[in-house]
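pls design
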């Protein structure tokens, strides 16, 4: 699936003046966040165990059981009262859940960066703009992961992908 994204990403990098040596870092983050360029909308369909593993500060074990496999409720809880979102009852968590190849999340970010569509070109332009604004010229993969993901989820894969794209991205 990455083949469909190569030209749009290169055009987006050029438009946003992202130097060649920084591009593999961005592509690796996009690759991971979009599940190998196949998922462009966060689904949040977690089991109770998955909730406790991924969002431990938002759920007790009994709450995780009550919210398990209810993506809209999960989004509304974990994204409530942050990133410009309203409280859990507002529905903003679901409305402004992760979108695009970089999974832009939150009302503030959706307002500033949301593409007009899930068209590949639009997603690439938005992702590169967001990445450049958020990450600047950093090449610290751990720092980049926290800036993009909010934590260190998938850090080992992101490191491996960065090494891969540093060799392959031209």
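designed seq:
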């Amino acid at each position: 699936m990455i083949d469909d994204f190569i030209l749009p990403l290169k055009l987006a990098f050029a438009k946003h003046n992202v130097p060649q040596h920084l591009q593999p870092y961005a592509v690796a983050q996009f690759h991971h966040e979009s599940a190998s360029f196949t998922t462009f909308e966060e689904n949040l369909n977690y089991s109770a165990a998955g909730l406790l593993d991924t969002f431990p500060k938002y759920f007790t074990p009994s709450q995780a059981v009550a919210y398990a496999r209810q993506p809209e409720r999960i989004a509304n809880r974990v994204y409530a009262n942050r990133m410009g979102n309203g409280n859990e009852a507002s529905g903003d968590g679901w409305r402004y859940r992760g979108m695009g190849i970089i999974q832009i999340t939150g009302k503030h970010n959706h307002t500033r960066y949301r593409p007009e569509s899930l068209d590949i070109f639009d997603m690439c332009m938005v992702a590169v703009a967001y990445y450049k604004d958020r990450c600047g010229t950093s090449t610290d993969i751990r720092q980049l992961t926290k800036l993009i993901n909010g934590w260190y989820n998938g850090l080992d894969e992101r490191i491996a992908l960065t090494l891969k794209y540093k060799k392959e991205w031209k």
